[in-house]
Amino acid sequence: MATKKIHVGLLFGGNSSEHDVSKRSARNVYDALDKEKYEISIFMFSKDGILMGTEVSNKILDGAAEDELVAAEMAKMDTSNPLAPIAALSEVSDIDIFWPVIHGNLGEDGTIQALFKLLNKPFIGAPQTASGMAFDKELTKRILNQAGVRNTKYVLITPENKDQYTYETLAAELGETLFVKPAKQGSSVGMQMAHNASEYEAALNNALQYDYKVLVEQTIDQPRELEISILGNEKPKVSKLGEIIVPENEEFYDYNNKFVDASGVVFDLPAVIEPALAKEIEEMSLKAYKALELKGLTRIDFLVDKNGVPYLGEPNTLPGMTNISLYPQMWQVSGIGYTELLDEIINYGFAEFERNSKISYAFQELGEERVGEKRYTEEI
């Protein structure tokens, strides 16, 4: 008798600046999943955050023109239905586990994870609260500072306080070269370096388009950029480190390098690194992973200064799975191939769901309400 396949709901797209990155990652994940083990149903969130059905989603994943297909589906949709944005999920009733291959908003900010919890279904990756905290770079820094994990010094800028901070005041506190980035965006979207007042104003205005919280950070002069992959739940394991070497004329590993043109970037896999530094980064990674209560999988980025001191940059709870992405490549050089890696990620998703199912919820009937005497000490 044939073993029943595990039914995976693969979700991609979303209303974020990383929509197209998600499409590439989903294509890779779909191709690598063992079709002998898994039945796969595909759903795409449009650029407006509306879930498309499996037929349209499959066509788009295969390269069909997205905007035309989405427009045709929207014309047929009953938008008066409050559940219209997720109604397509009703097409498939027996999904065993969800895999959100969604980067940025909707996927990494806790939104989709909360939906899965409401549906009482297993899913891969961090739970909703941990996802939301890790996606917010400022909240992440607060938790890292509390846990004693080294990261770069920063100032939080918002529309309400931005007039209190000039380039000169920030430069006096953080250094003359500032790194400006939205708190809740991924893949270097909205990030810029500023070396003077005019560049700072331009960078701040650009970042405020993407979020109302903006981090202005100290920069590290000519840092080494290192990354590490983490896999697991209560007892996570770390991969070997990878190093990203960007062209000398580029200041940091930006969106273009990550997803569009990596031809000028060198990836050292594994990184050629001193054992003591590697061990320190591994320990910092695991400490951060546990402090942020992450689960399943995460890639963590580090910067190392000229004195060999590492600073944790940020965690990525649903790291890219494109051909350029380092998360699977770092596991490849650590002895875990792509297909095996996906199996492990799915198993950790089931394990976390099973663990949470054992939590007890006590329900107590209130009975008749009894209210004490109210004494008003001032005339209402």
Features:
globular, 12 helices, 19% strand, 380 residues, Rossmann fold, peptidoglycan synthesis, ligase, alpha+beta, six-stranded antiparallel sheet, cell wall biogenesis/degradation, Dna Ligase, domain 1
3D structure, described in words:
By secondary structure, the protein is of the alpha+beta class. The chain folds into three domains: 6-123, Rossmann fold; 153-218, Dna Ligase, domain 1 (2-Layer Sandwich), CATH 3.30.1490; 224-351, D-amino Acid Aminotransferase, Chain A, domain 1 (2-Layer Sandwich). Helices cover 34% and strands 19% of the residues. The protein has twelve helices and 13 strands. The strands form three sheets. Strands 8, 9, 10, 11, 12 and 13 form a six-stranded antiparallel sheet that branches. Helix 1 links the parallel strand 1 (6-13) and strand 2. The longest helix is centred in the C-terminal third of the chain and has 19 residues, at 338-356. It is globular, with a radius of gyration of 23 Å. The model is unreliable at 252-261 (pLDDT under 50). Mg(2+) 2 binds at residues 314, 316. The active site is at 18, 187, 325. Its cofactor is Mg(2+); Mn(2+). Its EC number is 6.3.2.4. It catalyses: 2 D-alanine + ATP = D-alanyl-D-alanine + ADP + phosphate + H(+).
